């Protein structure tokens, strides 16, 4: 492989996007610090807020398909913060916080429980991914969050466990990733399953080695550590 995955920046001091500025700091459990000028807001799951300005306005953002998420034990509402003001986020886990800037027309898919915050001008949806999680954990699947910049540029901030590496795949270029390893992918990247039967040689037994195969074009994010937070049974 001529261009292996490259680690993403672990510290950002002067991030900018329309209506916001942001910083990412911290070594073990990093923090995302956002400054809102009042022209855009950010939405997030309520439990990821670390601190905020007292004057920052907080509201509720409804999520489509809430019943399906409720049945799966996931959040059915997002919290929304409107400025001007400052707010900070973190997750309860050692890892890597990083931004993905989506230009108009771009869409990414993100593994559940790894979304930290996003600008409110992005469209948010989700789908259920079957056939992957059940091979690893005996469950029926997991949810994938989808973020789309339909009208204007926006930003999604994600949390990965361990460190996060990004691989940009060329047309029809492929990479096999351990099923717990991927964290996000461009909508243009196709994913399939590869299962290898392995003979262990112990009492004539055999086992399976499972990968997710990603085919370009597009980018895929890979985390070096995976923490399974079950949402399906």
Write up what this structure looks like.
The relative contact order is 0.19. The chain contains two helices and 21 strands. It has a seven-stranded antiparallel sheet, with no helix packed on it. Strands 7-8-5-12-15-10 form a six-stranded antiparallel sheet, with no helix packed on it. The chain is mainly beta. Helix content is 5%, strand content 54%.
Features of the shown structure:
mainly beta, seven-stranded antiparallel beta sheet, 21 strands, 5% helix, 233 residues, six-stranded antiparallel beta sheet
Major pleated sheet? 7 strands, antiparallel
Distance between the termini: 37 Å
Question: Rg from C-alpha positions?
Answer: 19 Å
The coarse silhouette is: globular
How are the strands of the largest sheet arranged? 1-16-21-18-11-14-13
Low-confidence spans: none
Instruction: Describe the oligomeric state of these chains in a short phrase.
Output: single chain
- Helix-strand string: EEEEEEEHEEEEEEHEEEEEEEE
Layout: helices, strands, pairs:
Elements: E1 6-7, E2 12-17, E3 20-25, E4 31-36, E5 41-44, E6 49-52, E7 57-62, H1 66-71, E8 77-82, E9 85-89, E10 95-102, E11 107-111, E12 115-119, E13 123-129, H2 133-137, E14 142-148, E15 154-161, E16 164-169, E17 174-177, E18 182-186, E19 190-199, E20 206-215, E21 218-223
Antiparallel strand pairs: 1-16, 2-3, 3-4, 4-9, 5-8, 5-12, 6-9, 7-8, 10-15, 11-14, 11-18, 12-15, 13-14, 16-21, 17-20, 18-21, 19-20
């Amino acid at each position: 492989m001529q261009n292996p995955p490259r680690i993403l920046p672990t510290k950002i001091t002067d991030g900018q996007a329309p209506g916001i500025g942001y910083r990412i700091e911290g070594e073990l459990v990093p923090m995302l610090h956002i400054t809102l000028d009042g022209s855009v807001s950010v939405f997030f799951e309520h439990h990821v807020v670390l601190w905020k300005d007292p004057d920052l306005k907080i509201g509720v953002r409804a999520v489509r398909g809430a019943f399906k998420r409720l049945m799966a034990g996931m959040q059915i509402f997002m919290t929304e913060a409107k400025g001007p003001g400052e707010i900070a986020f973190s997750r309860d886990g050692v890892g890597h916080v990083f931004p993905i800037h989506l230009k108009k027309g771009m869409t990414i898919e993100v593994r559940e429980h790894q979304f930290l915050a996003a600008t409110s001008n992005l469209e948010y949806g989700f789908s259920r991914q079957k056939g992957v999680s059940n091979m690893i954990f005996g469950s029926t699947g997991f949810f994938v969050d989808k973020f789309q910049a339909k009208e204007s540029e926006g930003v999604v901030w994600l949390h990965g466990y361990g460190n996060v590496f990004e691989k940009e795949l060329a047309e029809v270029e492929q990479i096999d990733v351990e099923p717990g390893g991927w964290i996000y992918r461009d909508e243009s990247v196709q994913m399939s399953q590869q299962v290898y039967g392995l003979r262990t040689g112990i009492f004539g037994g055999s086992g399976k080695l499972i990968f997710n195969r990603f085919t370009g074009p597009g980018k895929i994010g890979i985390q070096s550590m995976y923490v399974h937070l079950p949402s399906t049974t």
